[in-house]
Write a structure and sequence with these properties.
homodimer, alpha/beta, six-stranded parallel sheet, four-stranded parallel sheet, 14% strand, DNA-binding
Chain lengths: 345, 345
DNA sequence: TGCTGCTATGCATACGTATGCATGTTCACG
DNA sequence: CGTGAACATGCATACGTATGCATAGCAGCA
């Protein structure tokens, strides 16, 4: 079988059904003016010929591709898997196609990036920190709406949706304080994004308010990955005193922290050292972890993202600088002590 | 800013550069006959106008969209996240775009499915069991090459790539036998796919060869999910005797098994009960698990998949029924006893 | 100089669908 | 029965790029 076999077109269907090509086009688009009987006849003919409308051709005239580009950093963090998953489902249900695009190192990304834009995508959702500024300006230039997911560019007028990372950081600090912690450690993530920094800032702020100067918080640089965090924590706490409480700015790093402390130090969590994360990925609630963390409302954030893109009415002007900050809440599980059960042993 | 702003076309560039539209087209396609000086002049003009070739329009004439559709089941299993990730990277590097498409329940999938085909995709990669037969016949009809990833349709002539699931199941049985296990349990996955069944078959076959009748293997139905497996295992081994060895047909189920046995029964693994999985997802090697499992060579499988699609030379005929079965190997970690340390207590 | 062969270039058209416009048809209402 | 209004239909064209074909330019060679 040759691949380049000729697929039937609206003209073929028109000929078979004895109508004009316009009629075929109208038969396949809802709400256009066509008699029901004729439409049925056309659909019948189309079925016989295995006809399927060619979206490429239709995009050419309508100037709408019905394609949305989703640019992802890496999928090693399950949180972004949930985000992708939710986005794809929602867009799919809305009748859009999703062009997925990942960018790891960001160097060869530029060329690939431009390739995506060639497809006249109706919108872009961006979760990769590396090329935010460049990407937003290009899209802006070309009139393509873009939304930054869980990141923002300080001082720019790019639209974005994020959860209240600063507030979430405060919640964690609150929980630790409530549980009676005195000595704190902070495991930071990717320094290129705003997310890690914001969470850390909220955490530090709240502690400062409670009289604990930021200089007393032990900071550990990380890479937002399990392996990176595991290595750092293992190395840092190879020996010596453990802090009372460690805030890892995301769940996979928190899980790595727990694994490292348990393996290397046989640490009892939360009795000996408390741990908290951020995101509430599915793994966080599983038995070995039962991690106290801050839940990001993915569904809500995705909904807001799509609202900002307003793919439905493309003639609306693109308002720049829409920022939606959705609240997040603490999920109290077993890695932070209840203050009443003050250190049971 | 209005969204429907007019983007510049090859005619605009041609006018500015003082050449014909054809020249612009040729300037942007490698290997076409154009003087280098003129090409530079055109690229210069294009840069001034922010011109980017419109792939939609170009697809219309070339009948090649450079888009590949990837149909996924669910992303709750990290193995398929790796697959997606690898696929996207490879396709991206090759100059293709990836249209991602997920299908959970499979009922409303049909309509969405046809929408994908409207985009004249150059190929389809399918990892969702639910709609294999239907999807393959439709693609075949339309001359679109399709490859089933890690699944196949018995008796059909659809092409596919998979790892040697039967062989992998045998490897697990081998390991258990070698470690001295006598009583076996088998945790099955999604019955709709061939994957779970094949792995189970290999396992049972090998045990049968060792004199252990299949009827003596305790089978537990599962759902290929962590939560499903956790619930089943918890319920099954709420009380009573544990088997010597449990083979879960994928890693997330194996992890769930370990978590459940440890929490509900405080079971010591592997001393009291051994566990093995399949896939070798990144989580499998982490400290709480250190899971003995069968590694699927994702890179290799993806490479084979792309080879079968032969996107590069689309004029090659689509050969039906190409099946690539790549070998897999056992990764021996800590959830299966070394036979020498024969049950240290 | 005249001829051949090759490359560079432009013209014109095709790709498959959507849609503005004009016309034809139907039907309700007075 | 006449008059519109509302709807149904077809014609023709536009969307932006690729490419076959014809031609112009040029170099090489006898």
């Amino acid at each position: 079988m040759k691949r380049r076999q000729t697929r039937s077109t609206s003209f073929d269907v028109a000929a078979l059904a004895g109508v004009s090509q316009s009629a075929v086009s109208r038969a396949f688009s809802v709400g256009s003016s066509i008699a029901e009987a004729k439409r049925q006849k056309i659909l019948e003919a189309a079925r016989k010929l295995n006809y399927v409308p060619n979206s490429i051709a239709s995009s050419l005239t309508t100037k709408r591709s019905n394609i949305v580009a989703v640019v992802l950093g890496n999928l090693a963090n399950p949180f972004y898997v949930s985000v992708l998953s939710t986005l794809v489902r929602r867009l799919q249900d809305g009748g859009w196609q999703v062009l997925t695009f990942t960018v790891d190192n960001g160097t060869e990304a530029d060329e690939a990036l431009m390739r995506v834009l060639r497809y006249q995508v109706d919108g872009v959702i961006l979760t990769a920190a590396q090329l935010s500024t460049r990407m937003t300006s290009i899209c802006h230039e070309r009139g393509i709406p873009i939304v930054l997911f869980n990141r923002y560019i300080p001082g720019s007028d790019a639209s974005g949706v994020r959860c209240d990372n600063v507030g979430g950081g405060r919640l964690v600090a609150d929980a630790f304080l409530y549980a009676g912690a005195k000595r704190f450690a902070l495991l930071l993530g990717d320094p290129r994004g705003t997310t890690s920094a914001d969470r850390a800032r909220g955490f530090s702020q709240r502690l400062a308010e409670a009289g604990i100067p930021t200089s007393e918080i032990y900071c550990i640089e990380g890479h937002s990955t399990y392996d990176g965090a595991y290595a750092r924590v293992s190395q840092t706490y190879r020996r010596g005193e453990l802090p009372d409480a460690i805030f890892a700015v995301n769940d996979i790093m928190a899980m790595a922290t727990m694994d490292a402390l348990r393996q290397r130090r046989s640490a009892r969590i939360p009795d000996e050292v408390m741990v908290a994360g951020f995101d509430d990925i599915p793994e966080a609630k599983r038995w070995p972890y039962r991690l106290t963390t801050v839940r990001q409302p993915v569904d809500e954030m995705v909904a807001q993202t799509l609202e900002i893109l307003h793919l439905d009415d493309p003639d609306l002007p693109i308002e720049p600088g829409i920022e939606r900050v959705v609240p997040c809440r603490l999920i109290w599980r077993d890695t932070v002590r209840e203050p009443k059960s003050e250190a049971p042993r």
